[in-house]
Design goal:
CATH architecture: Roll
Number of strands: 12
CATH topology: Pnp Oxidase, Chain A
Largest sheet: 7 strands, antiparallel
CATH superfamily: Electron Transport, Fmn-binding Protein, Chain A
Helix content: 10-25%
Number of helices: 3
Radius of gyration: 17 Å
Shape: globular
CATH class: Mainly Beta
Strand content: 35-45%
Bound molecules: flavin mononucleotide
Order of helices and strands: EEEEEHEHHEEEEEE
Distance between the termini: 39 Å
């Protein structure tokens, strides 16, 4: 059966990784869930995130010119859900509300999430208007991991948070992993 999809076409390309993006500007912290996150260059190392102008975090990221991508494991799915539904405009301490610990970045003067298994600290290089979201391209200035990682996550133990849409989160079934020898 062929179905016409008039809205939500964009969700055909999900699930995607759901991360926590953080930033800080003049004593205010940004913390929000972002599923529109993508690598855009290896060398130099760059990532892109799409952020709606409606987010409290938008202005903080825009004005500080910095953000961190915090990679969370599936144990933190509740926190990621909360950070994606509560706004910093209405809660006083969004880190605490989401059950997370705020620490300072290793290289940049912005908030990062202590519980993250991986962090990419980025300086905003360009911002493009793409529609109802703006695309922030970040130069990765520092990156660090706590988890099992060599050149990539270990597929037998990594439990990423993936998001389909409409409240549906999932992770990898390690039994589904297939490996080809590359190159
Ligand atoms: C799983 C998930 C993924 C999301 N992805 C994005 C995204 O890529 N970009 C975005 O602007 N908002 C995204 N959101 C919405 C924001 O995280 C949400 O509006 C959040 O409450 C904004 O917080 P703030 O107002 O404190 O910045 C997502 C929400 C969820 C639950």
């Amino acid at each position: 059966m062929v179905m016409d999809i008039e809205i939500d076409q964009i969700r055909l390309i999900q699930p995607s990784l759901a991360v926590l993006v953080t930033s800080s500007f003049e004593g205010r912290d940004a913390l929000l869930t972002v599923a529109w996150v993508v690598p855009v260059s290896y060398v130099p190392s760059r990532v892109a995130i799409a952020i709606s102008k409606q987010r409290y975090s938008y202005e903080i990221i825009r004005r500080s010119g910095m953000f961190a991508v915090n990679i969370m494991e599936f144990d933190y799915v509740d926190s990621v859900y909360k950070a994606g539904t509560l706004s910093g405009r209405v809660v006083e301490d969004k880190f605490r509300e989401c059950g997370l610990t705020r620490i300072g970045g290793r290289s940049l003067p912005i908030a990062v999430v202590k519980e993250a298994v991986g962090v990419l600290e980025c300086r905003v290089r360009n911002v493009f208007e793409t529609g109802d979201h703006d695309l922030f391209i970040g130069d990765v200035v520092d990156a660090y991991v706590k988890g099992k990682y060599s050149t990539h996550w270990d597929p037998s133990s990594y439990r990423p948070i993936l998001y389909i849409s409409e409240g549906h989160f999932l992770t990898i079934d390690s039994g589904s992993v297939v490996r080809y020898m590359m190159g």
